[in-house]
Amino acid sequence: MNTKFLKLTLLALVLFTASCSNDDNETVVAETETVSNLEAPSTASGYTKFSFSKNAVVTTDDWDIAFRGTTILVNGGVKGSDATEPARTGQGAVSIVSDIFANVTTVPANETFKQDTATLYAIPTGGGNGWYTYNVVGLHIIAPIAGKVFVVKTHDGKYAKFEVLSYYKDAPAEPNYMTSVAGYYKFNFAYQANSNTTF
Questions:
Q1: pTM listed for this prediction
Q2: Distances, alpha carbon 38 to alpha carbons 48, 82, 160, 168, 169, in Å
Q3: Helix, strand or coil, per DSSP, at residue 130
Q4: Backbone Cα Rg of the chain
Q5: Which residues constitute the signal peptide according to the record (predicted)?
Q6: Is residue 104 pLDDT above 70, yes or no?
Q7: Which of 11, 40, 96, 102 has its CA 20 to 30 A from that of 83?
Q8: By C-alpha distance, which of 93, 96, 85 is closest to 129?
Q9: pLDDT in tens, 105-128
Q10: Using an 8 Å Cβ cutoff, are 100 and 32 in contact?
Q11: What pLDDT is attached to residue 137?
């Protein structure tokens, strides 16, 4: 009788432990946040560094992406020749996905992630290869490319995704190069704080 009771007690303990472990590893859906009017400084002013985990601009080395004009850096890889670039102190990288933001629910394969190099950025600038197009004739507007999502491995190895919505202050629906103030990012992001590879 005591042996049977002991076996049942051990079985209950194993099941309880397993259920607790599953709770710890449970997928948590990352909430989408919106950042508005993040100022990207002029060429001579350095970069604005942003942390996904803090949802804030930072001045320390725990940044994930950094902005200057139309250039976006990741905190991983090699610093270029530009003296105003922040040092790459993290393991950051980025994978570019062509899809709707809400549809990007899993982290892409490791081999698709790239880091900044001394001569090439992981997020290219201009020409429609990166995050924007530029209308040279007439409008002279920097326009984010719809359906371009950037999945970021953060400086400390977690994951976030973001999409740029606007490059102009207060995100006007129809920017005007004569009146709209450039160099102010609006973007959506979702950050997975528990190292899961799903959003």
A1: 0.84
A2: 8, 22, 18, 10, 9
A3: coil
A4: 21
A5: 1-23
A6: yes
A7: 96
A8: 96
A9: 999 999 999 999 999 999 998 766
A10: no
A11: 76
